[in-house]
Amino acid sequence: MEFQLCLSLFTITLATILFVRTLLRRNRRVYNLPPGPKPWPIIGNLNLIGSLPHRSIQKFSKQYGPLMHLRFGSFSVVVGSSVEMAKFSLKTHDVLFIDRPKAAAGKYTTYNYSNIAWSPYGAYWLQALKMCLTELFSAKRLKSYEFIRDEEMRSLLRDLHAAATSMAGRAVTLKEHLTTLSLNVISRMREVVDKVGGSVITTPEQFRWMLDELFILNGVITIGDSIPWLGWLDLEGYIRRMKKLSNMFDRFLEFVVDEHENRRRQEDMVDVLLNVANDPSLEVKFNRDSVKAFTQVYN
């Protein structure tokens, strides 16, 4: 009796699911999609994308043309791979294509899509863009930090001269020196260790690793980005790395914001962000996470 009851409930549930799916398919809008390779169930065309996605897409464009349709897991993707298609989407109809999908990197490494690189198009993003153009990266603001670039460039030349002298005719690897130059210009962290209560917050070496990890993780695509219902598995381990990095950055940025709130001398980008956040005329309020997210972008 119990078995028959369970079988009846299972049959009714299955029939209901099939009926709902049939209705959804009937009501679903049919698009005249561009040509493209036939997708597999669940994964779509992800099996055809190699370690260098741009080369895989270039290969497909030779076969299917400058406008093609791919299936990345649960999502349809229309790819334009010509000058004309780039102009169409980035210039002629840029407003239609200005939004971006919500990926794990934006959620876990930028305070839930709080910076301008990952936040969705809307009032918050437009306000952030205005702030960047008029406050953070204006010509006047960049000019005010010219002395830093000058000092660090002179330091680079001294380091290169010393390295060339000590290497005794062997080649000097420029990559590490140029990376150090960029970090010093951005953060002025040369020979600086942030401390609170006698404990080290972030060393320059750790900060360098954090930035490298941030660049890597903001360029990956997790399985959850393409197949959301499998995201909890974190098969690649990217989510775990993102959460670890987020905790490290948050500890550092909390210290930075606290330090600037205590002194407030109106001399750098964090001070500017704090002043903007306290502006009562803002259409969309910037909170503490917004300040940390934009500080992270600036770093």
From TrEMBL:
<dbReference type="GO" id="GO:0004497">
    <property type="term" value="F:monooxygenase activity"/>
</dbReference>
<keyword id="KW-0812">Transmembrane</keyword>
<dbReference type="GO" id="GO:0005506">
    <property type="term" value="F:iron ion binding"/>
</dbReference>
<dbReference type="InterPro" id="IPR001128">
    <property type="entry name" value="Cyt_P450"/>
</dbReference>
<dbReference type="GO" id="GO:0016705">
    <property type="term" value="F:oxidoreductase activity, acting on paired donors, with incorporation or reduction of molecular oxygen"/>
</dbReference>
<dbReference type="InterPro" id="IPR036396">
    <property type="entry name" value="Cyt_P450_sf"/>
</dbReference>
<keyword id="KW-0408">Iron</keyword>
<keyword id="KW-0479">Metal-binding</keyword>
<keyword id="KW-0349">Heme</keyword>
<feature type="transmembrane region" description="Helical">
    <location>
        <begin position="6"/>
        <end position="24"/>
    </location>
</feature>
<protein>
    <recommendedName>
        <fullName>Cytochrome P450</fullName>
    </recommendedName>
</protein>
<dbReference type="GO" id="GO:0020037">
    <property type="term" value="F:heme binding"/>
</dbReference>
<keyword id="KW-0472">Membrane</keyword>
<keyword id="KW-1133">Transmembrane helix</keyword>
<dbReference type="Pfam" id="PF00067">
    <property type="entry name" value="p450"/>
</dbReference>
<comment type="similarity">
    <text>Belongs to the cytochrome P450 family.</text>
</comment>
<keyword id="KW-0560">Oxidoreductase</keyword>
